[in-house]
Write a structure and sequence with these properties.
Layout: H1 2-16, H2 18-28, H3 34-65, H4 70-90, H5 106-114, H6 117-130, H7 132-151, H8 153-191
Helix pairs in contact: 1-6, 1-7, 2-7, 2-8, 3-5, 3-6, 3-7, 4-6, 4-8, 6-7
């Protein structure tokens, strides 16, 4: 059980990328007061939790209703993760300011940063692969870590600096690209019965 939990946790951690997201959080909240930043972090993680747990519990029924197979889900998830990984490795322009002061908690801080399509797909695949309990625990731990990184972003980047945060985010992007290839390979195997 511990191995499954750790596998689900690390797969989700690479997709969510709390370090990279907190860099974006800092970039998006430079003109916010400390109190507004706390509210944004709390709201973003709450919304993310609702989205992710909803899909963990009823996502399969939604996909069944639309006749979406596991192979298609894995292949689509692999493509999405690949695109996210490419953005992470080569730089992400979504983190620039200029968005509404308080609605940024929903878009982009909750979705797509913490609970985007790639994360939803990964959570559902982890549930299928390692079991619902491991997926729930992996999601919960990542939400807690993301909340901590959002709430403590200023302090964390005073210590490690933006440059090292960028380096870490790009390394996570490379891991995400490898994970995307694995999901895509599994999807192709299922779809084409290889």
């Amino acid at each position: 059980m511990l191995a499954e939990l750790l596998a689900a946790f690390f797969a989700l951690f690479t997709v969510i990328d709390p370090v990279g997201n907190s860099l974006c959080y800092l970039g998006l909240t430079t003109k916010h007061t400390p109190e507004e930043k706390k509210k944004l972090a709390n709201k973003a993680i709450l919304i993310s939790a609702i989205i992710l747990f909803l899909f963990l519990f009823v996502g399969n029924y939604i996909f069944e209703f639309f006749s979406i197979s596991t192979g298609s889900l894995k292949l689509a998830g692999g493509v999405m993760l690949f695109l996210i990984g490419i953005k992470m490795v080569f730089g992400n322009t979504v983190c620039e300011g200029g968005l509404d002061r308080m609605t940024i908690a929903v878009v982009p801080l909750a979705m797509p940063f913490v609970a985007g399509p790639g994360v939803i797909t990964t959570a559902m695949i982890m549930s299928e692969k390692y079991g619902l309990i491991a997926a729930i625990a992996g999601v919960a731990l990542n939400l807690i870590i993301s909340w901590i990184f959002y709430r403590k972003a200023d302090a964390i980047y005073k210590v490690i600096g933006k440059q090292w945060g960028d380096v870490f985010s790009r390394i996570i992007g490379v891991v995400l690209l490898a994970l995307a290839m694995e999901f895509g390979r599994e999807g192709i195997k299922i779809l084409f019965a290889i």
